[in-house]
Amino acid sequence: MAYLTLRNINKIYPNGFHAVHDFNLEAERGEFIVFVGPSGCGKSTTLRMIAGLEDISKGEFLINGEVANQWGPREREVAMVFQSYALYPNMTVYDNLAFGLSLQGVDEDVIDERVQKTAKILGLTDYLDRMPRALSGGQRQRVAVGRSIIRKVGIFLMDEPLSNLDAKQRVTMRSEITQIHRETGATTIYVTHDQTEAMTMADRIVVMKDGYVQQVGTPREVYFHPCNVFVAGFIGEPPMNFIRRTVENGCIEIAGAALDLKEKLGEKAKDYEGREIVFGFRPEAIALEKPENAYVLSGTVELTEMLGDNANVYLDMAEEKVILKVPPHEIPPMDSELSFFIPAESIYLFDGESEMVI
Ligand code: ATP
């Protein structure tokens, strides 16, 4: 039995705005689930419904098999970390960590033991006497995380906890949170609009758009088998390249090259004759030397970006622009003509109308 079940969960705000539509998810105990999607897609609303901070308008929410729609946050045994750390400014790190347990009337000795253990997990032992203002952003965020894990809850909810940190701190905290999750084993739901956080941290990712779940899957599944154009474009950096074309005689034409899609479309080739499809390939899936069974395309180099371990090449292909990822020693000169190959197995085809993968 799943630990958390969201069954056709909907949120309609009092002003009539329908923010979440039929959200379905089963999370196993200990799973790390990431909700990802652009701003306003309903991630925080769903998280707040799980936390018990927001009413569920329609649908059923179960914890460990029991309907929990009406339970308060305390009964749900959830701890939540917000974007703003919300530490008590006049309390030391120790007291910030201890405060929740003191309120619950937990024994001083037990509190001390848990504070010391939590501080150790988070590398805060040397800072227990400090005030929050004397900490870096990353250290403050660690105290905020510590305040949640110290309570030993079953469900750990985090809403964009890293967004106030700089890029370097984010990378460090990312792995620290993953590590803490491994140690505590709490079922975790983590909200972010950052696909890298989703890819690196999640056991499973829920991709959302406009209040609808688009796909639920492991990072590999959503990256290699996106269900539609939106997921394909949202997961992966730089995003997948898309080219919209009408199929004629089983082929599409891109920048003067005819690409035969009959084999790729298989039995569906006939259905798509005369219809629009979206042809997709990832910047990193291309090759500069011809592999077996590949499509070849070319364009003019407009811009290159050296990133260190690789480089982005922006190519102008008459009707569209695409981005390619190439090794740093193969950066082409500006304004040169570049031919590249896309292995047939790295091509994605989507229905031009529904935008679902074919
Ligand atoms: P972000 O990444 O910007 O936080 P999100 O995916 O978490 O976005 P939500 O905060 O869940 O999005 O909001 C979803 C939608 O619901 C948005 O369009 C938002 O404007 C709307 N919304 C949020 N709170 C309310 C409210 N109290 N009343 C009406 N509409 C609301």
Label this structure with key terms.
358 residues, alpha+beta, 6-stranded mixed sheet, 4-stranded antiparallel sheet, binds adenosine-5'-triphosphate
Q: What can you see in these coordinates?
A:
The protein is an alpha+beta fold and 358 residues long. Helix content is 26%, strand content 33%. The chain has helices at residues 43-51, 73-76, 93-103, 108-122, 137-149, 167-184, 195-201, 219-224, 229-234, 262-265; strands at 4-12, 18-27, 32-36, 58-63, 66-67, 78-81, 155-159, 187-192, 204-209, 212-217, 241-246, 251-254, 257-260, 276-281, 294-306, 311-317, 320-326, 337-343, 348-351. The strands form 5 sheets. It has a 6-stranded mixed beta sheet with strand order 6-7-8-3-9-10, with helices on both faces. A 4-stranded antiparallel beta sheet has the order 2-1-4-5, with helices on one face. A 4-stranded antiparallel beta sheet has the order 17-16-15-18, with no helix packed on it. β15 (294-306) and β16 form a beta hairpin. The longest helix is centred in the middle third of the chain and has 18 residues, at 167-184. It is globular and about 75 Å long. The model has no long low-confidence stretch (mean pLDDT 92). The structure holds adenosine-5'-triphosphate (ATP). The site of adenosine-5'-triphosphate has 13 residues, from α1.
